[in-house]
Predict the 3D structure of the following.
Amino acid sequence: MTRQAFCRRQVLQCTDAPPKLLITSDYFLQSVMPGLPEDQIVGSVLDAIAEQRLPAGTKLGEQALSDLFGCNRANVRRALATLAAQHVVELRPNRGAYVMTPSPREARNVFQARRAIERTIAREAAGRSTPEDIAFLRRNITEEAQAKATGDKPGELRASRDFHLRLARIAGNDVLERFLSELTMRSTLILGLYSPQGSSCCAEDEHARIVDALERADSEALVSLTTSHLEHLEAGLNFDDKPRAKLTLEDQLAPWRDPSQAV
Amino acid sequence: MTRQAFCRRQVLQCTDAPPKLLITSDYFLQSVMPGLPEDQIVGSVLDAIAEQRLPAGTKLGEQALSDLFGCNRANVRRALATLAAQHVVELRPNRGAYVMTPSPREARNVFQARRAIERTIAREAAGRSTPEDIAFLRRNITEEAQAKATGDKPGELRASRDFHLRLARIAGNDVLERFLSELTMRSTLILGLYSPQGSSCCAEDEHARIVDALERADSEALVSLTTSHLEHLEAGLNFDDKPRAKLTLEDQLAPWRDPSQAV
DNA sequence: TCATCATAAATTGTTAACAATCTGTGATGA
DNA sequence: TCATCACAGATTGTTAACAATTTATGATGA
């Protein structure tokens, strides 16, 4: 079978699956909550990426999104512009929007930025945590462990992300919190591309020790634990193999993953 | 004529013209360069903010922008969404887009984030600078001094911003560079609101000493000089008086600066 | 079989008209 | 004088149709 014909078959397989995009448009929230439609789209896409339901390279068609969320294309376009500004989505003129595919270099930069930001967050968070914060974080750790035990990868990723973002919240700096939010999103894409198949995203005992240090308000320990935690995360990446997507197949064959895109 | 010089000339030509918004729509670049219209808008607005031609609170009307740049409102809306994603513009539903007015709390967070990021940039930049980089930075310092001497505030701000962004470029991390780009923009808004009238944005000898340390590849000195430089900058802010705009008048009277907006 | 090319379908980009909302102005009445 | 209200103008939000471009498909010929 020719490569061309093979691609066609794959396209058919992909398109005939009822939910083309693994994004949940929650009609309950949509009708009840006051949020603007474009915020709904942005939030849903970010959630989907954060839980690796949307792998890198996925096309985000305007029609598909406007159908999913029951709004017009103008809103979709604004949402995509917002996502592109966060470097989570790539806008190719006349071709559409695609979930960003981070290069190895970009991956290193993202993790370096995370170290810079989370170090400061750790220093600031020490001594500012309330008992509620500690309780939240400990509960989060058990949640992550449970998700990992049951093979619930999205749940595991969500828990891990929530852990880091909660620390940012404790530190009390909106700016750093937003930067970290973007970086964790991009980290998820990176992990999806470059981390060995079954590897978990965070070693749980590291999170536990971070909470211990936080509870003791041990600023120095908190900083060094956070730093090494991120270094371990980055060390687990493997850039030698070609970037792959979740299921090892469907990606190599996808028509949009052309070589010219490589950065 | 260099592209930069051309842009500057355009600025002068445009500012004495009727257009209410001090944004230059460079028709030369617009017609020749391949950039999308929305990128033109985003770039021009960012430039205008970076040089304090657009003070905090200025309304960015859709009609005005689409007239200025000769494009349709759809492009303007996308551009505004991009600017809003960078927290440089505030989108108020049904009311329009306004240049962000940072609160004192936001100001502190921005500078804390800058310290976190620029420290890492300093550490990475040490030992990576080329002779061209050093030459650029020394030239930049004299440019800034000259702008300060001639009372060219926009030129001074641009030079100072270019200095910090060049360091980020030297450090070689796109992610940190983009974050810093956003933060310097917001810093300019903050300085416009909270810094005493005549104060200059950066002490020039501090920049000079930073370049010296960079040339010596003295990582430790570079980090500490950068940190203290930012601390001096932040220490020069005055949050006691009410936030004011550049010309002390035109702002107090402006209809859009209502008290309910204060955060 | 393979590459090239033309054509049809699908997708993105643009435009203009219309609806909804906000803002400013002036009249009214206490 | 002051507050309230209605109305006209201006601005933002939405929609649908159309144009431009890309992508998929099939035919043609070496």
In short: Chain B has a mean pLDDT of 82.
